[in-house]
Queue: 3 jobs
Job 1
Amino acid sequence: MKKRWYDYLWVVELTYLVLGFFNILFAWLGLVFFFIPLIISAACGTKGYCNRYCGRGQIFGLLGGRFGLSRKKDIPRWMKSKWFRYGFLIFFFVMFSQMLWNTYLVFAGVRNPRQVVTLLWTFKLPWHWAYHGTIFHPGVAQFAFGFYSVMLTSTVLGLFTMVLFKPRGWCVYCPMGTMTQLICKAKNGKG
Amino acid sequence: MTMRKKRRAVVDDSACVACGCCVKVCPMSAIQIWRGIRAAVNAEQCVGCGKCAKECPASVIEIQEARA
């Protein structure tokens, strides 16, 4: 099958993840991966981002497919149930709100920024080597740490799902995918 | 007279996440994502090769035999 330019967007995703190891402020660029899917689904009523442009899905596809790092087994029934998908979306929203609240506290001067990346909402990894100060408010850095934590957590979860089940198993419960599908349902009718 | 049986991909609409993995692998371009909600198979074009079923991360595509 002929490759298109968007089949190489995994390079962008990989670059993003690598940049976060050198300067955490690059994490802000990740907002693009949040807003583009939402804009496409709200404006066009399609899941064009998942279908074509998701670099993260492409990474899982490559590692699990071409590099064979996947068992290629069926995902458990409960993981594709609406309960789990919508439940995970709500959980994701709650954790995201908590991250925004922590950012607000730093902006408000109540708390000092913490130079850690929190993996799987639990494990605090030291990440001070990727912070070289900022000309902006420390809250800007706090958001970067928090947002990069979200991105790295979803990557790690996606890798686990890739290894255990099918390469793009993450797509089944990816909060962005669930959210854009809901937007499409609201826009286009239930189908 | 024997009836010829044709194999076709059938999608479980309610569990489809509309990720589009099936679209990418279909050699006949017989499957599309319908309005960002679910995958839709064009029964005329589908040859039942099963690539989509194998690829589907949610395993919601089955190859079924249908009388042609």
Note: Chain A touches chain B through 35 residues (CB under 8 Å).
Job 2
Amino acid sequence: MRKMILVMLLLSIVLLSGCWDRYELQDLAIITAAAIDVVEDEQIRISVQIFIPRAITSGETGEDPSTGSTFVREGVGKSLAQAVADLQTNIPRKLFWGQCRIFIFGKELAEMGIQKEIDFLVRHPSPRGISNLYVSQEEAKRMLELIPPLERYSGEALRKLSQQEIGIDTTLKDVDVKLAGDSQSIALPIIKVLVSPEESRQGNQSIPVIDGTAVFQRDKMVGALNMEETSWLLWLIRTLKNGTISVMPKGNEEEVVMMPISGNVKFNPHISKNTWNMTFSLEVEANVIQNETLLNLHNENTVKQFEKEIEKVLKENLTQTMEKLQQEFHTDILDFGKRFHRKYPDEWKKVKNNWVEKYPEVNVTIHVNAKINKTGDIGPPAAIPRDWVEEQ
Amino acid sequence: MRIRRHPQKKKGKEDTNRVPISTKSQDLLTERLDANVKFFTDLYKDSSDIVFRPFTIGNLKAVVIYLDGLSDIEKLDELVLETLMNKQDISQTDIIQSLIDSIPISNIKKISTYTECIDAVANGNPILLLDGAKEAYALGIVKYEKRSIEEPAAETGIRGPREGFTESISVNTSLIRRIIKDPQLKMKTFHVGKYTKTKVIVSYMEGLVDQTLIKEIENRLNRINIDGVLESGYIEQFIEDNPFSPFPQVLYTERPDVASANLLEGRALIIIDGTPYTLIAPVSFFSLFQSQEDYYERFWIGTFIRFFRFIFLGIALFLPSIYVAITTFHQEMLPMALLLSVASAREGIPFPAIIEVLIMELTFEALREAGIRLPKQIGSAVSIVGALVIGQAAVQAGIVSAPMVIVVSITGISSFLVPRYSIGLSIRLLRFPIIFFAGFLGIIGVILALIILVIHLSSLRSFGVPYLSPVSTLQKNGLKDTIFRSPLWKLDFRPHLTGEFNAVRQSDNLKPSPDKEEG
């Protein structure tokens, strides 16, 4: 009898408490990307891209690339939470957020502020901290409707583009941390629909591509950097692996194109007599990938001159970009605030509350040290008679 | 009316009246031949295979009794009957002793009780009864049909001896004697089984084995009081430390080389007549994952294969459960691309994942069992049907999903990687409760099951030796031969079992290297 009771008790552990959060895959609507827009009456609209699982029969995936393997459904509400609740009423399966790594905000919403939406996403246990956030130039929902020719769905195309390091790469966690931190500024990549021949052929066949950077002061978008400015900005954030940098040597009308292979930025905050200074030291190593001039790159002096040129080009452009961030947008996306806070905690306390006013007054000095590592397999320009080559 | 009755329990110890031989059998033989013969004819009444052969030596009456088919009749005729019947001069004083001395057989035993006579006859030794003699003589001319020595069927290998134990215990002991020539190799005989009187030999290396272990084995063997021993499993189940554990606590082998290796490591063998399987005790969890070829091939191979086995042990135990847990509880753990593939495959499958797993696993187990039990001629039919049931056909029918087929197949293959069949059975059995844990509690359930398993394994002992040794109750030297298989010239110490003595196996510095003087 006692054994029976024991068995019953053990069984009840399994039968009464078990399986409460069990969901079969057939009962889940797998969300691959989500877009958040603001619609009339300041209502929030969430659109989600949901994967359509199709039974695999005899080895074929059964996915027709022209119709896509996803569909878009939306929910509207006063807040994001209500919109999501509304969305759930339109979908027979349980929404599964665990793999949704793409959140796109409409530009209109971004300009109004995204703090409330971020709160929902961070509070909800399912969306991942490593999810990528984007700002869409047009209606965010439009990005989900695109059917990429290569990837299974447009969210995947976007995620892979982000991995290419061509734009800024900001995750949900970054946003949460930075907005709560000292600098109170974030930058998100801006995306737009790629206008390509495919689209003209078939309504939705295109992909979203990165088209600059949206800069936020607190949670409100205050402006945008175009692609070129973004690439300069990236120099100060991390190594730019896929970009190129071209210089025009003195007295030449053609360019030498180089690709950076490694870079290192050092920030040196410094306060002297009430003037706040920030010094960047940028170390760059680059390889020559194309030589349009007639110069022989095996010449040491030529290379030295190029290095000078790179330094000049970088310095000019970085200064311009910094000026834009400081004077035009007043956004501290390079975390000056945090850096000053660390080095000068006492001074920081005084300016902490009006950092937005203080920030544009920080003097920025940029030092660049460039080095050309390899000039490629050949020195002089290719396919040109020897005696045309300028040895300088 | 009571439905359940326990007649055996009621009777208790009085049950001994079921012993077949009457109390009279303890009596001594009498001097009168006809009285002795009458006893045996009564005893073997209705037994058609008993043979009584009365004859006379001069005027002395004599009888030979034997069981047909157990003794060498040719030798009996030529060496015993012919020699004795041709004796004419029987007027000597010490007639009986001289008669016996004249029989040209090396193994003649003088016995004086009925019991001994019965045993002798049952074992194939004809007994010679002489009129006027108080003793009978058991003639050691046993001969019965037996299987020849063949390659072990269940423990095959590429490299290594191809001899396997047979059903005959004398052949088995001789196979071990041929490997270990030292007289320190001891063989102690026991008889187990009231009716079968099966010969059981405990074999060990004196000086290498802890004597308390031998005493313990003897005690446990002497406790056994059953009708018969038909296979080593009967003994195994009566001498286990924890009879409720799913894990085998005694190893069995049908290879003389494996048996000898264990003897040399200080373990004991329990050799049982009538079965090619010899028991080895004590064992540890890790010795269940060793095969003889780990040692015969070079140590890189041995180590690699052992790693492999443990990885696949994990797969065989946990893969179906982890699949269930992840696809029904923790979908976010799957990478996106895999999740979408699995979701696509599972679309339209009518069963929840746990039911699907159970269907497939049970089908697989059924197929495996059918493959063993069926006559060999029908075996191929099973594999054809099996390929359909666990395969593309089942997927196309929309009953199970393709990933599930892969999971079950990998699990099946993994469970075949275990070199010892007995632990393979445990793994097959344990897989099912773990699947239930996973189905109800997800990964937490799997981890819970793992914790329970580890706790159970840590508490197990085999003849007093911790089951997880040398890992739990850590012994550094033992670790060289667990998951790793160190080079043989590094294995300088025997495994630490119950005893502490005689640990050194070989001299150190055995690593082969060029002669220093030459170099």
Note: The interface with chain B takes residues 14-15, 18-19, 21-26, 28, 30, 32, 51, 53-58, 61-62, 96, 98-99, 101, 126, 128, 152, 156 of chain A (CB under 8 Å).
Job 3
Amino acid sequence: MREPAWRRTGKTPDYRFSLANERTFLAWVRTALALLAGAVALDQLAPEIAPTAIRVVLCVVLAIIGAVLAIVSYRRWAHQEQAMRSDAELPHSWLMLGMTVVVSVAAIVFAVLILVRP
Amino acid sequence: MGADGMGAAAIPARDPGLQPERTALSWRRTIMSAVIASLLIWRGWALSLTREGSADVAGLFVPGHSAHVIGLGVCAVMASLTTIVLVVCASIRIRTLHAGVGVLETAGHIAPPALMLRTASIAIVALAAATVVALVLGF
């Protein structure tokens, strides 16, 4: 695999912007890893939170969101750098809204599960 | 001491905003998150071994483990491999970042190679796959 073609277009961005973009990528990657760790921790440490089938489905959903987030964070990083290289406006991303919804829904679901637990 | 000051003036070794240092620390935090995620899978495997009554090291090599325990073991090894890939990416990157802003700017490639970030993303997808398989197998 070579460097993608867009890496040779436009001008190299200021290093501060490049590194900020890299740190944002890493922050999303850690969010993805936190979802994976959370899924396993929930399954292992809170087995009574829901019947096994429901619990496993919820944890698998969290882990799959983590996998998708890892891919989306790379794409976001690449799109941001492409925009910086061509001096374009930074692209709008639904990632923040999407993850806000995911985290809120997860919080509500688990709050309800804890409340209704016998 | 004086010579050091001269060198620093010629090539700024440090950025006032500590950008490379912050980025290197960000990679370190990412490694820690990956280690925690994979250790939890190892914990699940260790628990399943204990339930099978072979928690001691010698018991690990006695044949006759259930498919369930072997499956979790494969997930744990897979999780460790993905973590090792991330650690290798991070250590290469941290070494580059520690060269200092002066060196990085003259080299002209301060941004990480796209291949490195793609590898890191794929490693996390593989870790997620190991997580899903482990969850479906049950701890």
Note: Chain B has one domain: 19-137.
